[in-house]
Amino acid sequence: MMEHRTKVGNRLLAALPPADFDLLAPYLREPSLERDAVLIRSGDRIEQLYFPRSGTISFMLEMPNGQTVATAVIGNEGAVGIVSALSPSRSAITAVVCVPGVSWQISAARFSAALNQSNAIRHVVQTHTRALLAQFQHVAACNALHSVECRIARWLLHIRDRVDGDVLPLTQETLSELLGVRRTTVTHVVRKLRMSGAIRSDRRALIEVDRSRLEEAVCECYEVMRRRIDQIVSPEGMRHRTHSAQVGELPALEIPLWPR
Questions:
Q1: Which end of the chain offers a freer environment for a tag, N or C, measured as fewer CB atoms within 10 Å?
Q2: Distance from CA of residue 74 to its chain's centroid?
Q3: Residues 6+ positions from 162 with CB-CB distance below 8 Å
Q4: Of 149, 202, 212, nearest to 179 (Cα)?
């Protein structure tokens, strides 16, 4: 089972019993995710679904004046577009690759057909939806209540949780788009974090983080959000619940999603 999880790479897919995963496997492709690539644009019909194996994807809300703000970020614990499998619709957000990686990709039609044959796949979609909704709620509260410095620290830690290593390939322009603030504001906050040692690198397009010091700058939203999503989506817990969904039982098993 561990070999299967490692090979699959995406935690949602790895949680499926083998028979249910086999409904999807023949139709999965594995494209690379290039930085800043737009996977789904707001208003478009969702034709392709993505299950990241590495890298991160940000869900961006675009305002009429062109300003953007991130509502969520996902890595290999999540997916892009699968909520539409429950009820086909146009996308309300734009999904943009934040950190490059690789992903499984499957057409929405193929995924929906498999979902109609599998309670376990349906349960995976529902679990992912709960985790995504939790992130939306916490991000909205944090954006309203906390400073730009706290919010930058939170996004950096969320992204760090989903990649290997402390060097994040992020530009200040990307941070500006994630937070919905001016580039000059980001420059000022990044300089402040660098002076505190929370960020150690000043190389262009790369941000090297010191987790322990960055955690001193972040608000409580980071840990609350992380803990809540841990409770909803965990590798072993997901596997037990998707198996139990086939027999009508949903036992709870909470195991940290991102070991520290």
A1: C
A2: 1
A3: 55, 56, 73, 74, 75, 76, 77, 99, 258
A4: 149
18-41, pLDDT tens digit by residue? 999 999 999 999 999 999 999 999
User: Residues with Cβ < 8 Å from 229, sequence gap 6 or more?
Assistant: 77, 131, 134, 135, 257
The pTM assigned to this predicted structure is 0.86
Strand locations in 92-231, DSSP E?
94-99, 101-107, 167-168, 207-208
Tens of pLDDT along 117-176?
Answer: 999 999 999 889 998 998 999 999 999 999 999 999 999 999 999 998 899 999 888 999
Secondary structure class of 245 (helix, strand, coil):
helix
DSSP string, 68-131: EEEEEEE-TT--BSGGGGTS--B-SSEEEEEE-EEEEEEEHHHHHHHHTT-HHHHHHHHHHHHH
| CA separation for the pair 166, 159 (Å, rounded) | 10
- Calculate the alpha carbon distances from 225 to 43, 133, 217, 222, 235 in Å: 28, 11, 16, 5, 17
